[in-house]
Amino acid sequence: VRQQEVNKRILENNKTLSGNIMAGASWHSLNPTLANELTQATGQQTFNTAVGGATTADTLQQLNDFTSSGGSFAPGSNLILQQGGLDFVYGVDKNQTLNNLDQIISYMNQQGVNVILAGSPFASSFADVESNNFNPELDQIYNTLANKYSNVTLVDSMGRILQDKSLLADPIHPNARGWEMYNRSILDALNNRNRTTEQG
Prior knowledge:
The chain has 10 helices and 9 strands. With 200 residues, it is α/β, with parallel strands linked by helices.
């Protein structure tokens, strides 16, 4: 609840978000160090608007609420989005998950915002995650989005971290070593994105 109150204040007090914007679910809302690491790496302010337990529908609604009240994003900003895994375990139709993400990314593309998309492997239940009964590779919907939108850079570290129980604090969240690995994959994706943009 405290994080949601912080998010609400961020979105109310900053009508134009710039720099780095963390969004999505608990691998960002609970992440103890990623915001500071993003700020150090880019020299830009980082806003964390992620909400633990958020589905793609929740994050799309958060975006729509922000923009309908006059909110916008500065071109060249970075949206660091972790999303989709909860849709899978909750049984949301995969086409709906894809559509929700497509709406978020399409809007960001129109605004000139880079999207670092931390995707999830497909697991149909929390029990399957706990027992490693899933393929650690990214679900295909993420590749579909990356192929469609040039502003998307994928991060695929979540599945490998979830399958290595020595990197977890509980069945679905990293410990300090897991966060370090996950955050490194985010920063590497951002660096690769920036290098590609400079070369292009």
